[in-house]
Q: What sequence folds into this?
């Protein structure tokens, strides 16, 4: 399946969805059925929110990001905001009609932090009370937050396995709480190491233009890129062209290194890309 996650509208660039489709086709990947577009599924998310409200699992919160930052008493992890201090946690869902001004809906974490067995890392536990606390499931702009939307979508689409970067491990216990609160069966989660730049940081513009569209425009063959990535996973002994379909027989999560894959400029030059 292909899902276009476009609910975070301020960050969505025109033409981005079509570029995703073009990139996947170029790589030799396809999908069944029509792509699912999140902005066309708002009634599903609204129904889930109503269910959470009825069960008092969420509450209206008027705190801004600045309010939470000011209330923080300890440093917090990069990409994760400070733990929510519980300023609005005493509210009940029905009190939303009396709240003045914009507000979001936060999920009550309480003392719950589900443990789970990651398909790559093994047993995992993240203390949500220290890492964010009560989290937003519906934004003040009137749209669902990532955590709620993906849980509803994965359950609705029958997703049984989620493979994603290990920077999203802290999202998993939050999503497990939502699966439980909505009476849904969670998938199996598998978090693999990220591709990083020579400085060890997540691959980004600061490392040069490594977009698939740019590699394609420069004449890089898709089989060359797939071969490089397959080598990085330990599935090929050397960097050589191969199609995505031909990798089916050698796919093996256990061979992937536990360390992030460092994408050095020399590796890109080996597959014919020099514009970095």
A:
């Amino acid at each position: 399946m292909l899902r276009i996650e476009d609910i975070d509208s301020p960050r969505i660039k025109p033409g981005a969805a079509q570029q995703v489709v073009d990139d996947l086709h170029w790589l030799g990947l396809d999908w069944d059925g029509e792509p699912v577009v999140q902005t066309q599924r708002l009634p599903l998310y609204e129904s889930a929110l109503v269910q959470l409200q009825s069960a008092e699992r969420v509450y209206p919160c008027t705190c801004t990001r600045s309010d939470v930052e000011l209330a923080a008493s300890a440093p917090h992890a990069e990409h994760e905001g400070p733990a929510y201090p519980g300023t609005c946690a005493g509210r009940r869902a029905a009190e939303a009609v009396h709240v003045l001004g914009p507000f979001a809906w936060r999920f009550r974490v309480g003392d719950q932090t589900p443990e789970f067995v990651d398909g790559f890392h093994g047993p995992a536990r993240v203390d949500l009370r220290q890492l964010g606390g009560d989290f937003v499931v519906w934004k003040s702009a009137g749209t669902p937050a990532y955590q709620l939307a993906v849980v509803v979508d994965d359950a609705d689409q029958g997703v049984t396995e989620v493979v994603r970067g290990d920077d999203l491990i802290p999202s998993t216990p939050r999503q497990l709480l939502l699966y439980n609160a909505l009476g849904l069966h969670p998938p199996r989660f598998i978090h693999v190491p990220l591709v990083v730049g020579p400085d060890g940081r997540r691959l980004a513009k600061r490392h040069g233009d490594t977009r698939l569209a740019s590699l394609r425009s420069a004449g890089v063959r898709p089989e060359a890129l797939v071969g490089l990535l397959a080598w990085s996973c330990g599935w090929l002994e050397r960097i050589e062209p191969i199609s995505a379909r031909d990798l089916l027989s050698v796919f093996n999560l256990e061979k992937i290194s536990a360390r992030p894959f460092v994408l050095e400029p020399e590796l890109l030059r080996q597959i014919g890309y020099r514009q970095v």
Notes: The helical segments are 16-27, 42-54, 65-71, 146-156, 171-181, 212-217, 222-232, 265-270. Residues 106 and 136 are 4 Å apart (CA to CA).
